[in-house]
Amino acid sequence: MTEKNEGIELLTIGSGEAFQPFNWSVGRYGSYFLKELKDNKTFYGVKCPKCGKVYVPPRKVCGRCYVAMDELVKVSDEGEVAVCTIIQFGFVDPSTGYQQPVPYGYAFIKLDGADTLLPFFLDSTDPERVKVGARVKAVFEDKRTGSIADIKHFTILD
Amino acid sequence: MGKKVAIVGFGQTYQRSSRKDVNGVELINEAVRAALEDAELTINDIDAIVIGNMDHFEGVNYVDCWSAEGSGAVMKPIFKVTTGGTTGTTVAMCGYYHVASGMFDRVLAIGWEKNSESDTTGAIVTAFHPVWERTRFGGAIAGLAVEASKYMHNYGVTERDGARVAVRERLHALNNPYSQLHQDWMKGMEPEQIVDLLVTSEQNQMLAYPLRMSDMCPRTDGAAAVVFASEGVAEKIAPTPAWVISTHNRHNYVFLGDINWDRNDTLEAAAKKVFEDAGIKEPLKEIDVCELYLPYSYAGLKWMESIGFCGPGEGPKLVWDGVTDMDGELPVNPSGGVMSSNPIGATAILRVGEGALQVMGKAGDRQVPKDVNYSLCTGFGGCNWADVMLLGKKKPS
After folding, report:
1. What is the pLDDT of residues A83-133, one digit of tens each?
2. 3-state SS, residue B128
3. I want to staple B211 with a disulfide (CB 3.0 to 4.6 A). Which of B66, B162, B215, B341 is the partner?
4. Once rounded to an integer, what is the mean pLDDT over residues B260-284?
5. What is the DSSP secondary-structure string of B254-288?
6. What fold does the segment set B5-120+218-237 form as a domain?
7. Minimal Cα–Cα distance from B213 to chain A, Å?
């Protein structure tokens, strides 16, 4: 580290209130998943014709078998906490530019009937309840718009 | 297999939480000049350059273009690679491939980052799917905390076990002037005593259970560069080149929710293939030193098992027994590792450079007190990517 120019204030220049909106395609299966969430409060996955694995959210290719998947299957709105934590540190949500509200329980949830995990936040910050193996159920917003935010949170049933 | 390739030079910047005294180009130049000086080469001797970082930390794209004056790439072939946390090892692998191809004799591989320029977690989150994964996702800290939850659940591992890894890394960092963290208050204390303090101190903020501040890597500004050279050339540059014995990487998923959290199966598969190439059957006995990308404490337990240094659930015993300390059978991270310094795009190439120093006998105060024939280096990326590179003193046959 150079000691030259000692005494000069080292500057950083801020980006200002930068905001750049994106529009992400979710494809046919993604659109179906979100429509079902909105209209029927129902989760859908897709089943691999070769290994039988059910992926949530649905996508078109099973990477391991490298075959196309076209069987959309309904999975439960209840499931089990596979892995979890309680987030306590503050950080910026890149979607809004604002600090995330902390603390909150957070888990990867294995919905009954699915083989992959859905990441979402929980309605509890109690370390005795936010645990691997806890049973959870999706709670939906009354007014739904066709986005993942139609899920209000997952509530712990145990 | 291509030409044999060795590391003949390594340079790094001082890594600090904020290097406001330099901009990106200047930081990169600092590492490149140090690497060239180490190899006693000039930029004219370099045939090609590979560079990498994660653009979203600085919000400025195309480092291969804008850093040309600092990297030395003016009127030379330069390629950028970016693979998340593994960027540094992937840059190293790419440098190795360049030389192994026989088309370039001396290649410079550079990794860098200025994490002080943005909110690190906010930037990391942008590496994950905007629709399916970002809802309240807490970046690396959240991803690693949930991994720890399962590992603790499976094997009854405790917060003290995790803290023991953190203590090892921070004690080792005291020997490394380049490292960001120097926790001098730990000097002269017994590991158990420090562990007790870490798991009870209210100053040691809980970030996301079970991860406290001391369990995580810091965010760092820094750069590092490695010079790769071909056989015939390498021996003339370095008295003891660090030969690349084998290198492999593995990647396995689209979404984090697809992972089997019980195992680090990408690291397991990449390490297995490297050991197979090298004819290594008992890694714990045959590897002399490691520079592993361990971004948080519990990785120093679970991932040791994934590499094959011990069986499932046996990580804590290995670490508590002192096997991985400086004077142990398998010293891990003599540099202080990622938990002591984490300029993300440079972090994994620091592992390769530090691993090379151990083989070359040039690690100074952090040189392990034993012969080093094999040094194992790894990279880890949040997208569950694993890079493994084995370096050795003996030119591979």
Report:
1. 999 999 998 888 788 888 899 999 999 999 999 999 999 999 999 999 999
2. coil
3. B215
4. 97
5. SSGGGS-TT--HHHHHHHHHHHHHHT-S-HHHH--
6. Peroxisomal Thiolase; Chain A, domain 1 (3.40.47)
7. 10
Range of the domain at A102: 27-156
Residue A16 located in a structural domain: no
In a domain, A46, yes or no: yes
pTM for this one?
0.96
**Are the C-beta atoms of B228 and B94 separated by less than 8 Å?**
no
Distance CA A64, CA B252 (A): 8
Picking from A15, A57, A91, the nearest residue to B132 by CB comes out as A57
How far is B135 from B372, CA to CA, in rounded Å?
A: 46
User: With contacts defined as CB-CB under 8 Å, which chain B residues touch A117?
Assistant: 256-259
In angstroms, the separation between the Cα of residue A157 and the nearest Cα of chain B is: 19
> Edge-to-edge strand order for the sheet containing B5-12?
B78-80, B48-52, B106-114, B221-230, B5-12, B242-251, B385-392, B374-381, B289-291
Q: Which two tokens stand for residue A146?
A: 């066709």
Q: What are the b/e assignments for B243-274, b being 16+ CB within 10 Å?
A: bbbbbbbbbbbbbbbbbebebbbbbbbbbbbb
Provide the Cα torsion B328, B246, B12, B14; round to 10°.
-40
* Residue B363, both tokens: 């690690």
Residue of A nearest to B254 (CA): A63
Contact in structure between B330 and B323 (CB atoms under 8 Å): yes
Locus of tokens 């003949």: B8
Which ipTM score applies to this complex? 0.93
Query: Minimal Cα distance from B147: which residue of A?
Result: A83
Q: Answer yes or no: is pLDDT of B234 > 60.
A: yes
- Within-domain flag for A4: no
Residues B180-225: tens digit of each pLDDT: 999 999 999 999 999 999 999 999 999 999 999 999 999 999 999 9
How close does chain A come to B31, measured CA to CA in Å? 11
User: What residue segments make up the domains of chain B, in order of their start?
Assistant: 5-120+218-237
**Binding-face residues of B in 91-150 toward A, CB within 8 A:** 117, 119, 121-123, 125-126, 130-139, 141-142, 145-150
Contacts of A63 in chain B (CB under 8 A): 252-254
Nearest to B59 among A15, A57, A107 (CB): A15
Look at A83 and B149 and tell me if their CB atoms are within 8 Å.
Answer: yes
Closest CA to B395 of B291, B278, B290, B304: B278
Residue with tokens 């694995």: A53
- Indicate the number of domains in chain A: 1
Q: Is the residue at A109 inside a domain?
A: yes
Total CB pairs under 8 A between chain A and B: 129
